[in-house]
């Protein structure tokens, strides 16, 4: 690997923030579990090796070459079992790929949606073809070609269209208890919304209905499952986590109360103040004064 391919993940993420796209070759040791924590970037991986992937409510025991599609709204982890693991990774935001309002959201894609097909098994011939596309993206990423973003989008679309021709992997086991499964996914998705890192990226999932929509299930089913497994309602879990984050922002940032309210998804500071006081018994400014 050259110097660019050896740069740290944080450096790759910095690039992603700037242009919404990155592609690189991977080559790592096994015996490691990787948890993808980016909230805003989709992922396509072409890898060869043995691994165990936990994705939403499923576990995949894979050996060989696979094509993996990661949705930032769906929790997953990747345990590498092989002593070596090679391939390519492409990270991109939905805004980078979606250039038209008529373009279907990636969350509705058969590969990226919950309950979809996140993993495909790849033959040697298919791997050679896909390898060539990833190499072209890496090469193009380093050029000064004025339309390179458009060209790279076409390469990503080509990978997706080629994938539609392939059969999904069946090497997975579902959790036995449906309520436990959906509760686990909900709680992990809830936690992935935090911490709030920027006023410009406010919390987008604030209600049980929001989470049910993100998980493509009926809100009544979500509420029933969460209550059955945890003894607390979906709304209570969301409220508790928002209050915890609000207290952290009040204590550890210099953002004014209006900015904190907006960052947590409240349209008006008054709504946030009323919400906060109803749950904690005090208002945000009074709490901040106590913490100073």
From TrEMBL:
Keywords: DNA-binding, Transcription, Transcription regulation. InterPro entries: Homeodomain-like_sf, HTH_AraC. The keyword Membrane does not apply. SUPFAM superfamilies: Homeodomain-like. Pfam families: HTH_18. The keyword Translocase does not apply. Residues 180-290 form the HTH araC/xylS-type domain. PANTHER family: ARAC-FAMILY TRANSCRIPTIONAL REGULATOR (PTHR43280), TRANSCRIPTIONAL REGULATORY PROTEIN (PTHR43280:SF32). This is Helix-turn-helix transcriptional regulator.
